[in-house]
Amino acid sequence: QLSICADKEQNIRHAREAIQTAADGGSKLVLLPEMWNCPYSNASFPIYAEDIDAGDSPSSKMLSDMAKSKEVTIIGGSIPERSGNHLYNTCCIYGKDGSLKGKHRKVHLFDIDIPGKIQFKESDTLTPGDKYTVVDTDVGRIGVGICYDIRFPEMAMTYAARGVHMICYPGAFNMTTGPAHWELLQKARAVDNQLFVATCSPARNPSAGYVAWGHSSVIGPFGEILASTGREEAIFYADIDYAQIKERRMNMPLDHQRRGDLYQLVDLTFTT
Ligand SMILES: NC(=O)CCC(=O)C(=O)O
């Protein structure tokens, strides 16, 4: 859970040091926050964006170098990605050999308006991704979503159906929806699907334009909090035993008890 500043090079240096510390502390998988190389704002995204596919991305290069040198899988939070005329909110996933194993472009953009509390419209600058992302790593099958993606249970269900062990959500909830929903959503995605959920937020900076809630966590398949932190910058660790997925699914075989004859994901638009 990193502190993020306006200086991109400093953010990259800082993330590199944090990955090094986490790997030296025994991590096999490291998860970074949403938009860790820039302030979270529509004004910043175009300025800090990098072209990952063109190989013109110092942030991604650092992640790849660190994955290789520390032999660690990295779920690289997210950065603004430039691709042609479009910008995306993108998470790169690196294997421990430094290879790019996957790239998740945030599918559900954060466009909300809670009057007097929080208004944000990512779609002013960003384009949504059009694919789900599942990667096989040395530390299991990982599904990736970014922040607002966590609000869509269909995505997590699809990941569960694809055999994902853990869903990683880099995310930056805010001071209104954070206390109301952040922990609830993490637990819900874990319990509904009987798998692990890991989240990573920026640390809270009360003087930032967008104030992140923090409270990154790792949740087990029974909804148990395996590790979590508060608002400050922190590197924290969890021991994850995927055997618990099987055990919980044996205890409560939700998948076999599902009544697919009564409900299907056909048209789930709210009726008002
Ligand atoms: N960066 C985001 O997607 C924020 C999502 C959020 O705060 C929410 O309430 O959802």
Automatic annotation (TrEMBL):
InterPro entries: C-N_Hydrolase, C-N_Hydrolase_sf, Nit1/2_C-N_Hydrolase, UPF0012_CS. CDD domains: nit. Residues 1-242 form the CN hydrolase domain. GO terms for molecular function: omega-amidase activity. Keywords: Hydrolase, Signal. The keyword Signal applies. It comes from the Eukaryota. GO terms for biological process: asparagine metabolic process; glutamine metabolic process; oxaloacetate metabolic process. Belongs to the carbon-nitrogen hydrolase superfamily. NIT1/NIT2 family. This is CN hydrolase domain-containing protein. The lineage of its organism: Eukaryota, Viridiplantae, Streptophyta, Embryophyta, Tracheophyta.
